[in-house]
Structure formats: C-alpha cells, structure tokens
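The instructor's notes for this session suggest beginning with a concrete chain rather than abstract definitions. Hand out the sequence below and ask the class to guess, before any prediction is shown, which regions might be ordered.
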Amino acid sequence: MNAEEIVSRLLYRDALMLVIDKPAGLPVHPGPKGGETLFHHLEALRFGLPRRPEAAHRLDKDTSGCLVLGRHPKAIARLNELFRKNEVDKVYWAVVEGGPQVDEGEIDLPLAPKSPDRGWWMKVDPKGQPSLTHWRVLGRGEGLSLLELRPITGRTHQLRVHCAAMNFPILGDQIYGTAPRFHGPGLHLHARSVTVPLYPKKPPIFVEAPVPEHMRERVEACGVIPDGAADPGSSEI
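After discussion, reveal the predicted structure:
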C-alpha cells in the first residue's frame, strides 16, 4: 500500500478519531517476522497533526473492516478507556461453514491460551477468561450461513474460537477451521461497524465498512446483497 491507498480507506475523521477500513492480510502492528504493517502507513493519516495516530484496539491480520485510531494522546486514552469498558459497540459479519439451527443466540465459553509458547493461539478452557459473543443469522446458503457477531468481551481470536467450538467455523480460518494453509479462500470475518460514544453531549458515532471483495460472492450466496458503506452521518471527512 502507499499513502494514497491508505487515505482512500478512510471512513471517518474528526478532531479526535479516525476510522479506516483495514484490508484483510495487513497486520496492524509489527511482529517478529517483520514485513509490511499498518504501522508503517500511519504517517499518511496525520492530516496536519504533529503525531501519527495510533490504533485504539486490535484486529487480526486476516480480519478486514473498521479499525479505530486515536489522533493524539488524550484521544487515544479516551478511546482505550471506552474499549476497555466495552462501551464501543462492535459488529462483525462472518460467513461460516454450516451454521446454527436457530436464528439467534449467544456463545458463553471461557477462553485461555492454548500454549505458553503461542499466547495468541486460544482454546476453550473452563479456567480461562469469561468470553461472551451474541450472534444472529443474516442469511443462509448451501452449506454456509452469514452471521452477525457481537463480541461482548474482547478476547484474542474470540469470534474464531467461539464459532469453531459451536461446529460452524468461519470460512477460510486456517487455525481453528478447515481451510488449507496458504491456499484457502481468505478469512471471511469482517468488522462491519463500530458505534463509539466518544462525545458525552453528542450521539454516538456510527461507522460502517463495505463488504470486502473476497467475501462478496459468499455473502451473496447466503442471500444478502453486499452494499457500500453506510453514510456515517456525523463524519467530518
């Protein structure tokens, strides 16, 4: 990606916060193996401020969609507090293999690291941290379902582990699902929208990201027509 491309993915901008549509396959932070990350492109999102913005939460490398950035230290602290208190409403879309028999429900399964050597690799564990996901079916297709997922807690890989544990793994999940390594269809998990109560005396800010290209075919196969990003209304882009 170049500066023009990252700016083109901007969904929302005001004095405190940015929201971008993170592409699948791009890590947010540098890792031990190096390579391109979003961190390397944040200078392009300063828009005149002395410091580059910082991510206020995490998205997996292979998850696309809404990523919230704070534009300066006070904004970052405020956003971090909102995420820590679970006051930001996060909605994900996932195409899963098979699917639940009913149309809505919740998954309440505690999660813990699977191995001390791989702290990001999670498993269901009665001794783990409480983890809760609400879900509802948006559409069904042949062997697939489109789910709306709302993580009430924010554990590492929560949505991926929860769906796999319920026997409807997310399509393209090479770790917890059935996708082959390096040759799968890409993880079909998308951070569809965020609602951020950033300003005490103003309505919460709602931002929605369009369905990514690699998910469109199977979203349509579940009977849902992918649309563009909704107008965030209060955006000052």
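Then share the key points. The chain has a mean pLDDT of 91. The radius of gyration is 18 Å.
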